[in-house]
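Intended use. Records like the one below are meant for learning the mapping from a protein sequence to its folded structure. Do not use them to infer anything beyond what is encoded.
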Amino acid sequence: MASTVLKRQYITDAAGNPIGIILPLEEFALVEETLKQRLPHPGTADKIAKMELAANDALFLSDLQEAMSAFAGADAQWWEPAQ
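Structure written out for the chain above:
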């Protein structure tokens, strides 16, 4: 039975520029603590502030309306009782 060997996998953008990497768990474990210390993790206050901004953002509201319209038929079929 063959074993699976995981190697680093680079993620590139449409132009072929590297923008990220997928690491095997063993390698990630070596850098995980450093990443937690160096990369900010948004707190609840930051998330709430972004939500408050979204309520007045024309692009967000337009996208929201479009998504709601797109799923109106499916939502009605799923949630509304048959008559």
